[in-house]
Amino acid sequence: MPLFRKVDAVTVPVPDLDSGLAFYRDVLGHALIWRNDELGQVALRLPESDAELVLSTGLTYEPNWLVDSADEAARTIVEAGGRLRETFDIPVGRIAVVDDPFGTKLVLVDLSKGLYTTDDKGEVTGVSSPD
């Protein structure tokens, strides 16, 4: 079974969420999925995928790879010659940031805590239970 399940999201840095939304939502037409001002992030829909376009005031441009377990995936990569940068919890799961054996940064995400729930404006109201 391959380690990466799919691209979960691609993060794009923006100076602030409102100007990011003004461009990516209002000009380019991507619909809002959720907004979390506390994290400085909004997610927009990619119409032919369930991956998200995540605008962020604090992250760099990078893909986020969905895995079953961020910690186990990181361990596999480290055992194969990679390097662990950091691990941390997020509201919907856990993230491990690693370098592959060639020095490429990989962001590994698991959704072990569930998915965001939102109100009718897309504001995050909580986290649903995982499947």
From TrEMBL:
Top-level division of the source organism's lineage: Bacteria
Coiled coil: none
InterPro entries documented for this protein: Glyas_Bleomycin-R_OHBP_Dase, Glyas_Fos-R_dOase_dom, VOC_core
Pfam families (UniProt xref): Glyoxalase
VOC domain location: 6-111
Family annotation (Gene3D superfamilies): 2,3-Dihydroxybiphenyl 1,2-Dioxygenase, domain 1 (3.10.180.10)
Protein name, as recorded: VOC family protein
